[in-house]
Write a structure and sequence with these properties.
This protein is an alpha/beta fold. The protein has a single domain, classed as fumarase. It is 21% helix and 27% strand. Strands 2-3-4-5-7 form a five-stranded mixed barrel. Strand 6 and strand 7 form a beta hairpin.
């Protein structure tokens, strides 16, 4: 078993290339949350050649809709099913996105787009939203506030625990590719 890898955002080619499907990772830095509605809006903006509210170059999107926080930095913030974002993934990768965090398998087309873009898909532990929230140091809405928990949030995370689901070579732990 290999050692846990520590990486920071924004992701660069060298860091992404060093990861292999199945690697355990502790991610630190800035990540952005986005779910279905935010993805749809971002892709519409790309189609219209509009400036995006977040520069995606080297960034990581976490498929998550945080729960209300009470008096904490953030409420539970577990991953949502990634396959719902598959139709939106190729345009975002072309816009510079380098990493995605979610749960579950991705389509063969998305695995190919990840390989082609030299990106990476991480898996976050499902059912562990309260635990994952303890890894978030700062949280703020940066776009689409009208979407509530589906808005885009900027999170600063420290040692966020992940597993590489699809690496930059297209190897997929679900498909054995």
């Amino acid at each position: 078993m290999s050692a846990i890898k520590r990486i920071k955002t924004p992701l660069d080619k060298k860091a992404v290339a060093s990861l292999k499907a199945g690697d355990e990772v502790l991610l630190s830095g800035v990540i952005y949350t986005a779910r279905d509605q935010a993805h749809s809006r971002l892709c519409e903006m790309i189609k219209r050649s509009e400036s995006l509210p977040v520069d995606l170059e080297g960034q990581v999107i976490y498929y998550c809709g945080p729960a209300p926080s009470g008096n904490r930095v953030i409420g539970a913030c577990g991953p949502t099913t990634s396959g719902r974002m598959d139709p939106f993934t190729p345009p975002l990768l072309k816009a510079g996105l380098k990493g995605m965090i979610g749960k579950g398998a991705r389509s063969a087309g998305v695995a190919g787009a990840i390989r082609h873009s030299g990106a990476v898909y991480f898996l976050a532990p499902g059912g562990a939203g309260a635990y994952l929230s303890e890894r978030v140091r700062k949280c703020e809405i940066v776009a689409f506030e009208d979407l509530g928990p589906e808005a885009i949030y900027r999170l600063e995370v420290e040692d966020f625990p992940l597993v590489v689901g699809i690496d930059s070579r297209g190897r997929d732990i679900y498909a054995g590719r």
